[in-house]
Recover the amino acids of this structure.
C-alpha cells in the first residue's frame, strides 16, 4: 500500500464543501456540549459571546480563504504559515491542529456515547447511572470512533455522502426545535431577552475572555474545507474557499439563534442539570415522547459528522507534513484504491482510543468535557492565530496599493482577529487547572520531539 496514487482530486464541489464546513463545527453537538459551560461562565452574555466570537472567527476565515490563493494544500495552516514564516512556525501551526484534533476525539465522542446510552436507557430500561459511568461512556465512545474511522478510511466520497445525509436530518430536527421554542416560549421566556445580551458594553475583559474562549469551540471545525482543498474542485475562487465563506455565514446566524432559544426555554438550573443534553432538555419541554427523543438523534448525528471531519483534518494535515518530511514519511502513505491517507487515519483512531481509555479514570463525564473543551480552545487560538498573522504579513503590501475593502479583508480584519486570538489564549492560560494546562501547553511543547527527529532524518 504505497502512494502510487495521490488524494482524490476534484471529488468535492461547492455544496459538498459547504456541508463539510457546517458539519465540521457540528451545530447540534456544539450547542449540546458547550452551552452549559458558557452559560455557567458568562450567563446571558453567552449570546453576545457567540456573536463577537463569530466576528473574530470570520476574520480567521478571511485569512484562510486568502492564504488558499497561495496554493490549495492538504496541510492548510501548516503549509501556509510555513510558506510565510518558515518551516518551524509552520510545523507548530500544524502540530497545534493535530493535538487539538486528538483531544477532540474525547470531547466529541463522549456526547455521542452519553446520547446513545440515554437512548438505550429509555428503550431497554437500563440503569440511569450508566449515562454518568465514565467507563461505559468511554467504551461506547470508542465504538463510535471505530465505526466513523472505517467510513473515513474508505474514501472521501463515502465521507461526503454520509455528511450530506446526516446534515439534512440534523437540520430538520434543529429547525423544528427553533420554531417550537419561539412559538411556545417567546411570550413567557425563562430569561427575558434584552439588548444587553448583545451590547459590547455589557462585557468586562474577564467576561469577554471567558465567554469567547468557550465560544471559539462552537465555531471550530469549518476549516476542514481547507484541508480538503486538494480533493475539492478548483475555480475562482475555488470550491473550498466558497465552502468556508458560506459555512461561516450560516454558522454565525445559527449559533446566535440557538443561544437565544436555549435562554428563553431553559432556566439556569435546567441548563446546568442538562449538562451535555441541552437539546434534549429543550425538546422535552416542547414536544411529547417519542418526538422529543429526536433531539438525541440530532446530537448523535452531529457528533458523528464532526468526528468524521476532525479525522479528515488530522489525517490530511499529518499526510501533508509527512509528505514534506516534517514527520516520518510512513504517514504519507495513500491507499491505492480508496485514495485516503490510511496510516495517518489509523494514528488518530489509535490515539483517540488511548485517550478515551485514560479519560475513563476521571471522576465524571463533565470533568472530562470541561478540561478538553478549554484545552482545545487554547490550541485553536494558537494555530488559527498564526494563520491570521501570516495572512496579514503576506498581504501587507495591499495597505499601500489596494482599495480599503481589499486592505480590510486581507490585512486589517485578519490581523485584528489574530491579536484577539492571542489575547484570549494568553489571558486565560493562568486560569487552567493542572490537567488542562498539561493538555494545552504540554501538547504543544511535546511537538519539539518530532520536529527534531524530522530534522535529524533529513
Amino acid at each position: 500500500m504505497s502512494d502510487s496514487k495521490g488524494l482524490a482530486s476534484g471529488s468535492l464541489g461547492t455544496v459538498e464543501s459547504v456541508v463539510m464546513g457546517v458539519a465540521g463545527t457540528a451545530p447540534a453537538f456544539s450547542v449540546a456540549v458547550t452551552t452549559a459551560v458558557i452559560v455557567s461562565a458568562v450567563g446571558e452574555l453567552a449570546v453576545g459571546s457567540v456573536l463577537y466570537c463569530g466576528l473574530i472567527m470570520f476574520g480567521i476565515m478571511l485569512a484562510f480563504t486568502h492564504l488558499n490563493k497561495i496554493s490549495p494544500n492538504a496541510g492548510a495552516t501548516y503549509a501556509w504559515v510555513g510558506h510565510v514564516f518558515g518551516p518551524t512556525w509552520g510545523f507548530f501551526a500544524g502540530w497545534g491542529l493535530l493535538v487539538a484534533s486528538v483531544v477532540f476525539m474525547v470531547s466529541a465522542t463522549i456526547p455521542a456515547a452519553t446520547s446513545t446510552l440515554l437512548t438505550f436507557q429509555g428503550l431497554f430500561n437500563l440503569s440511569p447511572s450508566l449515562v454518568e459511568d465514565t467507563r461505559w461512556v468511554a467504551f461506547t465512545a470508542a465504538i463510535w470512533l471505530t465505526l466513523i474511522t472505517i467510513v473515513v478510511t474508505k474514501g472521501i466520497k463515502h465521507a461526503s455522502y454520509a455528511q450530506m445525509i446526516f446534515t439534512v436530518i440534523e437540520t430538520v430536527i434543529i429547525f423544528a426545535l427553533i420554531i417550537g421554542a419561539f412559538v411556545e416560549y417567546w411570550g413567557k421566556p425563562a430569561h427575558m431577552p434584552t439588548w444587553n445580551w448583545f451590547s459590547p458594553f455589557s462585557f468586562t475583559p474577564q467576561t469577554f475572555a471567558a465567554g469567547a474562549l468557550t465560544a471559539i469551540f462552537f465555531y471550530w471545525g469549518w476549516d476542514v474545507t481547507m484541508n480538503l482543498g486538494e480533493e475539492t474542485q478548483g475555480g475562482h475562487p475555488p470550491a473550498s474557499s466558497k465552502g468556508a465563506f458560506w459555512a461561516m455565514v450560516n454558522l454565525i446566524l445559527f449559533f446566535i439563534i440557538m443561544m437565544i432559544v436555549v435562554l428563553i426555554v431553559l432556566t439556569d438550573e435546567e441548563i446546568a442539570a442538562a449538562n451535555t443534553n441541552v437539546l434534549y432538555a429543550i425538546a422535552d419541554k416542547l414536544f411529547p415522547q417519542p418526538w422529543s427523543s429526536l433531539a438525541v438523534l440530532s446530537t448523535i448525528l452531529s457528533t458523528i459528522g464532526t468526528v468524521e471531519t476532525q479525522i479528515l483534518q488530522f489525517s490530511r494535515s499529518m499526510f501533508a507534513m509527512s509528505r514534506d518530511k516534517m514527520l516520518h514519511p510512513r504517514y504519507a502513505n495513500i491507499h491505492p484504491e480508496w485514495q485516503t491517507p490510511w496510516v495517518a487515519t489509523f494514528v488518530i483512531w489509535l490515539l483517540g482510543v488511548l485517550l478515551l481509555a485514560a479519560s475513563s479514570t476521571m471522576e465524571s463525564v463533565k470533568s472530562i468535557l470541561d478540561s478538553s473543551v478549554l484545552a482545545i480552545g487554547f490550541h485553536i487560538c494558537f494555530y488559527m492565530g498564526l494563520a491570521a498573522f501570516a495572512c496579514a504579513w503576506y498581504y501587507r503590501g495591499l495597505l499601500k496599493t489596494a482599495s480599503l475593502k481589499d486592505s480590510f479583508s486581507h490585512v486589517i480584519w485578519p490581523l485584528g482577529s489574530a491579536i484577539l486570538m492571542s489575547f484570549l489564549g494568553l489571558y486565560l492560560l493562568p486560569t487552567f487547572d493542572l490537567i488542562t494546562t498539561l493538555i494545552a501547553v504540554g501538547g504543544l511543547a511535546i511537538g519539539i520531539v518530532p520536529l527534531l527527529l524530522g530534522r535529524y532524518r533529513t
